[in-house]
């Protein structure tokens, strides 16, 4: 039986199962350019004007240092994020790329290479089939480096001399993510690692003869190794304990030892968190550099001159920067940084300075430079916030609420960031929006979000951002608590949060909304499925509505990665779990107003996930809004599209949460 016939039969069966009202309900469908809406009312001009300043905020992120001592950054001045250059503190931002689609994966050629330019990735309409391009800063010429077909290419990595470029690509068969190697002089590329699965290049040896690589299986499992570039031989490293998670992997300056991040056991003792480690195979020297930090190390970088290493530790959702002197591994003094996120970092070619991207809950991302000799911090970009008074923005507090199970005979607690409005509640109590992250291995962190600040400041809504079980950042045991058949345990955590809300005298438990994207969209639907009597409305963005249909239709290069997290739908027992927890198959239980938004080109969560849940929920006696963009994928990256979605979401909350 053909797939088209199966889909048709399923659609007919679903229609027959719906009440008569669902089959005859009027749908107000509007098509404007690339945007399609169903039952979304006209957005009031007054709301658009109020939102305007919040929507005209922007941020800047570091990509690297150019040969002339300037910083290459990513920022948006029109519709999409593009590459810009800044050559002095708070200097003019010179826009370099000008595309309708956003550019990403900016990678500057090493200073020692003599190549003056950078590599960037660009897809079409959010389909994530990014092609890598070389931008020559001297001639301003752009050349596509990859095949230009339906392949995903990412993770560009230069050798120190700039003669080789390694990257990950699905070009060989569309399913496996191989490592390819490109000769930058001839621009000829060839597959290097074709062992099957999802591979990434991590670091070239200083002499350019070896390449560190990693095979990623899941958030709990990865396999590092090394490739001899002359022979193509891949040697996997032994993994203590048989299975572990690995983060970054880089050669030490001598090219013999290596730094890496892992949660492998140490001396036979299990490691709960991913720590920064040093290993010299020749001497046998091994050192855990962050053994005194009971949190994950989220990233690190070694300076080209070999004198320093910088790393970021994720301490309860706050990113903290440390710089070590090499080879002593002793921390050096740093200037005081704002409490928030260090979202990127890059050493200058001479190793004297470290550029970082800083973001806080009340300020967008901006680029700062640390002079390592005198611990001086200098701001290089100042991003706009729409003329708003940032002193009125709200920073969250970290709270923990008890959930349904126990740890060491004590109630397990779930962390959440709580944004409480500064102004008194109009009716004595604040309505609440619960914002659930995706992943599911993601983590909610207190970053700047203008939409959240609008809800708080303009509408007087409290916002709670939980890190339910399965979130990263709290140890591998916590990360595994929602795997496979335990999927709905994370939904129970939302039920526990609803209980906590009801106990807070300043919060209105009768006016609670829930929102989320991707896996967070599934959490929205699942929460409404179980708690429609306690949740007044929900906004689902690019969310999963049925794990079986999702796994069948997601792009082939992602399927096994997602099976490792969610479970394998081909196993009857797991298929039965998916059927039991499916929002699609339990759509009749969703009896709160619902807004579903989707990108037509989404390769991760196909648009059919959105269409099928909208059709299934209609007729339950509550409004269902639907928004689809033909030129977007997994989220909305074009300003006009995102602005309209934000305005529609605010109007949805005003109509169905605040009244």
Would you give an account of this structure?
- It is a single chain.
- The protein has 659 residues and is α+β, with helices and mostly antiparallel strands.
- The strands form eight sheets. The chain has a ten-stranded mixed sheet with strand order 1-2-38-37-36-35-33-34-32-31, sandwiched between helices. It has a four-stranded antiparallel sheet with strand order 3-4-5-6, with no helix packed on it.
- The two termini are 49 Å apart.
- The model is unreliable at 1-24 (pLDDT under 50).
- The protein has a domain at 3-54 and 391-656: Alpha/Beta hydrolase fold, catalytic domain (Rossmann fold, 3-Layer(aba) Sandwich), CATH 3.40.50.1820.
- β29 (363-371) and β30 (376-379) form a beta hairpin.
- α3 (45-55) packs across α12.
- It is built from twelve helices and 38 strands.
- Residues 1-22 form the signal peptide.
- This is S9 family peptidase.
- Keywords: Hydrolase, Protease, Serine protease, Signal.
- Residues 451-657 form the Peptidase S9 prolyl oligopeptidase catalytic domain.
Record the SSE blueprint.
Elements: H1 3-17, H2 20-24, E1 29-32, E2 35-38, H3 45-55, E3 60-65, E4 71-76, E5 81-86, E6 94-95, E7 103-108, E8 117-122, E9 131-136, E10 142-144, E11 153-158, E12 164-169, E13 178-183, E14 188-193, E15 198-204, E16 210-218, E17 221-228, E18 234-236, E19 246-251, E20 258-262, E21 275-280, E22 285-288, E23 296-302, E24 308-315, E25 318-325, E26 330-331, E27 341-347, E28 353-360, E29 363-371, E30 376-379, E31 397-407, E32 410-419, E33 430-436, H4 450-457, E34 462-466, H5 476-479, H6 489-503, E35 507-517, H7 519-531, E36 537-541, H8 547-553, H9 556-566, H10 572-581, E37 594-599, H11 607-617, E38 624-629, H12 639-656
Parallel strand pairs: 33-34, 33-35, 35-36, 36-37, 37-38
Antiparallel strand pairs: 1-2, 2-38, 3-4, 4-5, 5-6, 7-8, 8-9, 9-10, 11-12, 12-13, 13-14, 15-16, 16-17, 17-18, 19-20, 20-21, 21-22, 23-24, 24-25, 25-26, 27-28, 28-29, 29-30, 31-32, 32-34
Helix pairs in contact: 3-12, 6-7, 8-9
């Amino acid at each position: 039986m053909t797939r088209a016939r199966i889909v048709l039969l399923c659609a007919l069966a679903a229609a027959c199962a719906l009440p008569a009202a669902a089959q005859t309900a009027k749908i107000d469908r509007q098509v404007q350019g690339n945007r399609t809406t169903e039952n979304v009312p006209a957005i009031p001009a007054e709301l658009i004007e109020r939102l305007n300043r919040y929507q005209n905020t922007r941020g800047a992120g570091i990509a690297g240092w150019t040969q002339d001592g300037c910083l290459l950054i990513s920022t948006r001045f029109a519709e999409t994020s593009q590459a810009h250059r800044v050559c002095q503190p708070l200097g003019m931002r010179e826009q370099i790329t000008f595309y309708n689609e956003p550019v990403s994966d900016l990678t500057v050629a090493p200073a020692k290479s003599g190549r003056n330019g950078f590599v960037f990735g660009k897809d079409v309409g959010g389909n994530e089939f990014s092609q890598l391009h070389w931008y020559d800063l001297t001639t301003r010429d752009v050349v596509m480096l990859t095949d230009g077909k339906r392949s995903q290419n990412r993770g560009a990595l230069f050798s120190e001399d700039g003669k080789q470029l390694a990257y990950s690509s699905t070009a060989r068969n569309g399913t496996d993510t191989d490592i390819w190697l490109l000769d930058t002089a001839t621009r000829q590329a060839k597959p290097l690692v074709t062992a099957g699965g999802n591979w990434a290049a991590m670091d070239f040896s200083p002499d350019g003869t070896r390449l560190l690589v990693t095979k990623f299986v899941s958030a709990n499992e990865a396999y590092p190794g090394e490739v001899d570039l002359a022979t193509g031989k891949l040697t996997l490293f032994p993994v203590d304990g048989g299975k572990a998670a690995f983060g970054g992997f880089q050669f030490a300056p001598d090219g013999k030892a290596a730094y890496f991040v892992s949660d492998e056991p140490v001396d036979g003792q299990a490691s709960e968190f991913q720590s920064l480690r040093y290993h010299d195979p020749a001497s046998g020297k091994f050192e855990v550099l962050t053994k005194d930090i009971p949190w994950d190390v989220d990233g690190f970088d070694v300076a080209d001159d070999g004198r320093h290493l910088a790393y970021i530790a994720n301490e309860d959702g706050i990113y903290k920067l440390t710089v070590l002197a090499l080879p002593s591994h002793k921390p050096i003094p740093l200037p005081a940084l704002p409490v928030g996120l260090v979202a990127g970092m890059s050493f200058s070619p001479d190793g004297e300075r470290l550029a970082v991207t800083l973001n806080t809950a009340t300020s967008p991302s901006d680029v700062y430079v640390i002079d390592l000799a005198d611990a001086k911090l200098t701001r290089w970009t100042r991003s706009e916030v729409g003329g708003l008074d940032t002193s009125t923005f709200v920073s969250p507090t970290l709270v923990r609420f008890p959930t349904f199970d126990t740890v060491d005979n004590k109630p397990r607690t779930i962390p959440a960031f709580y944004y409480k409005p500064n102004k008194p509640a109009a009716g004595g109590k604040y309505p609440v929006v619960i914002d659930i992250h995706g992943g599911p291995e993601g983590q909610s962190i207190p970053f700047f979000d203008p939409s959240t600040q609008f809800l708080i400041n303009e509408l007087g809504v409290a916002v709670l951002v939980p890190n339910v079980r399965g979130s990263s950042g709290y140890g591998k045991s916590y990360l595994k608590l929602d795997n496979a058949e335990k999927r709905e345990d994370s939904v129970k955590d939302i039920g526990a949060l609803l209980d906590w809300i009801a106990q807070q005298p300043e919060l209105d438990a009768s006016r609670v909304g829930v929102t989320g994207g991707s896996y967070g969209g599934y959490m929205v639907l699942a929460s409404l499925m179980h708690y429609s009597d306690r949740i007044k409305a929900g906004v689902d963005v690019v969310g999963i509505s049925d794990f079986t249909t999702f796994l069948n239709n997601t792009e082939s290069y992602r399927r096994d990665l997602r099976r490792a997290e969610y479970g394998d739908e081909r196993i009857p027992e797991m298929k039965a779990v998916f059927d039991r927890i499916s929002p699609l198959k339990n759509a009749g239980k969703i009896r709160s107003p619902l807004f579903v938004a989707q990108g037509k080109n989404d390769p991760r969560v196909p648009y059919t996930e959105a269409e099928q849940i909208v059709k299934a929920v209609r007729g339950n006696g509550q409004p269902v809004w639907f928004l689809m963009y033909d030129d977007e994928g997994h989220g909305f990256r074009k300003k006009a599209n995102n602005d309209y979605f934000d305005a529609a979401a605010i109007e949805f909350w005003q109509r169905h949460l605040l009244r």
